[in-house]
Amino acid sequence: MPTTSSSVAGLAADPNRPAVVDIWWWITSGSAPVDAPSVLSPAELAAAARLPRQRSQEYVVYRAAVRRTLGRLLDVPAASLVFGRRPCPECGDLEHGPPRVIHPVNPWWISISHTNGCAMLAIAPHEIGVDVERQRPIWSADLAAKVLTAAECAELSTIGDPVRRDRGFLACWTRKEATLKAVGTGIVTDLSALESHPATRGPVHLTTTVPGAPTNWQVHDLALPDPYLGSLAFPAAAGSRIRFREVTTGPDGELGR
Q: Looking at residues 122-131, what average pLDDT do you find?
């Protein structure tokens, strides 16, 4: 893919056009660029060191790519970015609210997701949530009862092919997790109370009851290559358009799209 550059100017809101949600995704299973660790914070390097080797390498790849992408958008060196959190919409705590870049100062909302082999970053002028999962055997009646609504259980239980049923379960999961990340709480709520409409092709609308957050969310299924599934959520009233791009990382750390 050709190498291109972006800047925050390209994300600036135009009052005459819908807001834009920008999403980048990349494969993380390759070797890390030689200089990737140099852009990570001490806390990120410490987190990587605590992981098994393969997971540690993937962590370095995706965190470096997140930093390089955001650094380009905000026109600062990737290593200079400082991450923090917004207040939790339920309790106001800064320890577990949605993530944000606190340096440099900027108005953008971000969401980051990572699964085995794939990672994703979203940025928007409003609440945003993304989730990516790798398809795997996961279905069980006990797990379904804990995280699915009665309607979702009934829909997926009729699927005889175990691979399709696993995919249906993960589609429900990514829709729910993306929504709750957009809300700002993450999956600390009762997932079995959130209806994700598995029989309906996206976009779908999910309704939440978290105080201080929008109630209605528009959720899109993202077109990722097998074996990955992803979802994007943002306030239903936003009416935003979506730009979805793959990122490739060269051995020198240069990003291409």
A: 97
CB 79 within 8 A of CB 43: no
* Residue 178 to residue 176: CA distance in whole angstroms: 6
pLDDT digits (tens, 9 = 90+) for 193-251: 899 999 999 899 999 987 777 789 999 999 999 999 999 999 999 989 999 999 876 54
Contact 250, 215 (CB under 8 A): no
| CA–CA gap between residue 113 and residue 129 (Å, rounded) | 9
pTM of the predicted protein model? 0.89
| Residue 49 in tokens | 């060191």
> β-strand 255-256 against 248-249: which pairing, if any?
antiparallel
How many other C-beta atoms lie within 10 A of the C-beta of residue 85? 15
Q: Tokens for 92?
A: 């106001």
Which amino acid type is present at position 74?
L
Is the pLDDT at 15 greater than 90? The verdict is no
Query: What domains are there in the chain, each with its CATH number?
Result: 20-256 (3.90.470.20)
Element (H, E) at 222: strand 216-222
Over its C-alpha atoms, the chain yields an Rg (Å, rounded) of 18
What mean pLDDT value characterizes the chain? 88
Residues in the chain: 257
CB atoms within 10 A of CB 256: 12
Backbone angles phi, psi at 256, to 5 degrees: -130, 155
Q: What is the mean pLDDT of residues 138-160?
A: 94
| Spacing of C-alpha 55 from chain mean position | 18
Distance (Å, rounded) from C-alpha 37 to C-alpha 44? 9
